[in-house]
Amino acid sequence: MLNDFDSAPILRAATTLGDMPGDRPMSAADEPMTIQALREERGLGVVELAGIAGILPDHLRAIEAGVDPTLPERQALAAALNVPVERIA
């Protein structure tokens, strides 16, 4: 449930991967990408990203297959991927 969301894994991932989302202006390299492309670029598996973002792996698979995520899901995925929400296509 989103009310029970634990942001600690996201903060650890942000510390490991670099700066926090939104810390710098977007550039040409920050063009929108699919969640799957962003996940694969970071070497994350579906189960790993789903765990960091606090969603079920099957739901992440559905999102990657074309189901529109809710705004809280987009925000959680963006934070887990260390990108601004606007970067997610």
Model description:
With 89 residues, this protein is mainly alpha-helical. It has a single domain (2-20, 32-87), classed as lambda repressor-like DNA-binding domains (434 Repressor (Amino-terminal Domain)), CATH 1.10.260.40. Helices cover 49% and strands 0% of the residues. It is built from five helices and no strands. The relative contact order is 0.23. The model has no long low-confidence stretch (mean pLDDT 83). InterPro entries: Cro/C1-type_HTH (IPR001387), Lambda_DNA-bd_dom_sf (IPR010982). It comes from Kaistia geumhonensis. Residues 35-88 form the HTH cro/C1-type domain.
What value does the average pLDDT take?
A: 83
CATH fold annotation: 434 Repressor (Amino-terminal Domain)
How can the largest sheet be summarized?
none
How much of the residues is beta strand, in percent?
Answer: under 5%
Question: What is the number of strand segments?
Answer: 0
Question: Could you tell me the radius of gyration in angstroms?
Answer: 12 Å
Enumerate the spans where pLDDT stays under 50 for 5 or more consecutive residues. none
Q: What is the CATH class name?
A: Mainly Alpha
Element-by-element helix/strand order: HHHHH
Span between termini = 24 Å
Give the number of helices.
5
CATH architecture tag: Orthogonal Bundle
GO molecular function, one term: DNA binding
Keywords: DNA-binding
Pfam families: HTH_3 (PF01381)
Organism: Kaistia geumhonensis
Please provide a brief summary of the model.
With about 90 residues, the protein is mainly α.
Any chance you could write out the topology, listing elements then pairs?
Blueprint: H1 8-17, H2 35-41, H3 46-53, H4 57-64, H5 71-81
